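Quarterly update, task 2.4: S-adenosylmethionine-bound model.
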Amino acid sequence: MKRSLDAVAAKTIEVALEIGLFDALKQDGDELESLARRLKVSARGLRPLLYLLTSLELLTEEAGRFTATESGRIFLQEQWPEISAALTPAPEWQPLGQAVRLGVCPGSAIEGEGDGGGFFAQVVPMLFDLHWPMARHLASHLPLEQGRVLDLGAGSAVWSLGLLSQRPELTGVAVDRAQVLSEVAAPNLERHGVLQRYELRAGNYYEVALEPGAYEVIFLGHLLHSDGLELSRQLLAKCYTASAPGGLLVVAEMVGSQPRGLDYEANLFDLNMLMFTERGLVFTAGELEQLGREAGYQVEGWVEGPGRYPVLLLRREAPESETTMQQCICMKTTTFNVSEPVCRDFQEPARACDRTTSELIREAMELYRLESIRPRPSLL
Ligand SMILES: C[S@@+](CC[C@H](N)C(=O)[O-])C[C@H]1O[C@@H](n2cnc3c(N)ncnc32)[C@H](O)[C@@H]1O
């Protein structure tokens, strides 16, 4: 084993031995579901345990089949008895065996309706420091000057703030629990001088009403891992409806490696999701892309940057069918690159009538379309 054992890794090995994992594994490997059935434990519980054991090199995983390693067998026979006797158990991890057997968090989940935002009001200021460099970097990949941006589960609103702090004409909607918005997001946005461009919408983001087709960019920053697969599907479907045609969905997450054994921290976090959330898990890049496609988005790509994990960009395609032609033309005007001089021509009149530059440019283009663009007779 290459890495030295921390208390959680030691507890993981202890539970694996308790449930008879190493004895049960077949020579040619086992898949998660059949192994869970044989061991009479929950597949949700066993899954992160197996991944952490692959990071510890006690197991290997290939094409979804887990096998015990020879070096692991030797370690367990020769070194483990002495090491385990010397380790101090981590008290909050004592019920890991129960979590693996039943697949549910043994205590009350750290987040949720009951909490009302108290837990995250403490945590999200730290997340701001962690995500801010990447949030700012990301703005260069989002060439958007006008429109509305949505930050779901906004926390400090770090992700949308990275963009709005650099684009003075964008406006934002931040959704989170009331306590998080009032104690963290609002003061943070105030500090950055952008609070007046935000609407703070308090509530559960599964229930809060979102205007259909209204948002050019939607941020989902570190939400999906705690919501798990089924709720993430629902959330992405809701985002798709709220995305403007041609708009982007930005998904920032801790991303599980492929193969899973390569990233110990992501696997440790995955085990945390089992212990402290109701449905959480860490997704791989492929799984996140698949979630996006299922919701109707196209995968635009991954942005690498100063963060530890790259960020996924998904795009809602603009309509192209004949029946939506008029809408399509209007949408295309919002994504046109307008040259600096043209933009300047519109800025003063826009200020004078208290409207945005892009609105006036869009109107001018629409007027041009009505007056000057005629269908070819062959199309009539
Ligand atoms: C892990 S934090 C991420 C915060 C921020 N997006 C970031 O990346 O730093 C998750 C945030 O989502 C909020 N949240 C979780 N579930 C929610 C729900 N169902 N409705 C509204 N907000 C929720 C939490 O209050 C918290 O602020």
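Highlight for this quarter: The chain has a mean pLDDT of 90.
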